[in-house]
TrEMBL record:
It comes from the Eukaryota. S-adenosyl-L-methionine binds at D29, D48. InterPro entries: MeTrfase_RsmB-F_NOP2_cat (IPR049560), MeTrfase_RsmB-F_NOP2_dom (IPR001678), RCMT (IPR023267), SAM-dependent_MTases_sf (IPR029063). This is SAM-dependent MTase RsmB/NOP-type domain-containing protein. It comes from Aphanomyces astaci (Crayfish plague agent). Keywords: Methyltransferase, RNA-binding, S-adenosyl-L-methionine, Transferase. Residues 7-17 have a biased composition (Low complexity).
Length: 161
C-alpha cells in the first residue's frame, strides 16, 4: 500500500527525471526550437499522448446513468475539446520525433479507439516528416487482444547521410 508521502516523493522524482519539452502550434516557435543548440537526443521516445479517453475502461465503467454519459460527452467529446486534443497530439508527436537520435525509435500511444487520434495522426505525421519510417514488430509475446491491435509498427528516424 502506498503512503501519501511516498507516492508524492516518487511522483516528484519521476517528474524531475523527464525533460520538459515545450509544445507549440506556432511554426516560428517550432523552427526556433529545432534550430536551437539542443544537444540532447534519445535512442527511444515514448509519446503517451493525451486523448479523449474513449478507450479507457477505467473511465467508462464509471458511467452508470444518462447524466454521467452526458457529462462525459460534454467534457471529453465536444468538438472544441476533441480539436484541442488533436492539436496537442499533433504537437506531441512532432516534439517526440524531434528528440530522437538518428536511428532512434519512437512509440506513439493513446488510450483512444478513435482512428483520428491514432492511425490518422500517424499517417499525417508520416506525410509531413520525410525522415520518419514505420517498422513492423513482432507482438507474439506482447499481451494484447489481436482484434484491437491492427497496426504493430514502430516509428523511427532514418539515418541521413
Amino acid at each position: 500500500m502506498w503512503h501519501g508521502s511516498a507516492r508524492a516523493r516518487l511522483a516528484k522524482q519521476a517528474k524531475a527525471a523527464v525533460p520538459q519539452v515545450p509544445t507549440s502550434t506556432n511554426e516560428e516557435d517550432d523552427e526556433a526550437h529545432s534550430s536551437s543548440s539542443t544537444s540532447t537526443y534519445y535512442d527511444k521516445v515514448l509519446v503517451d499522448a493525451e486523448c479523449t479517453h474513449d478507450g479507457s475502461l477505467r473511465h467508462l465503467v464509471k458511467m452508470t446513468s444518462d447524466a454521467d454519459w452526458n457529462e462525459y460527452l460534454d467534457k471529453y467529446l465536444s468538438p472544441t475539446h476533441v480539436q484541442g486534443v488533436l492539436d496537442l497530439q499533433h504537437d506531441l508527436i512532432r516534439n517526440g520525433f524531434r528528440l530522437l537520435k538518428e536511428g532512434g525509435r519512437m512509440v506513439y500511444s493513446t488510450c483512444s479507439l478513435s482512428r483520428k487520434q491514432n492511425e490518422d495522426m500517424v499517417d499525417q505525421f508520416l506525410q509531413d516528416e520525410p525522415t520518419a519510417r514505420l517498422e513492423t514488430f513482432d507482438t507474439t509475446n506482447v499481451p494484447h487482444q489481436v482484434s484491437f491491435v491492427s497496426d504493430t509498427r514502430l516509428m523511427y528516424r532514418d539515418m541521413v547521410v
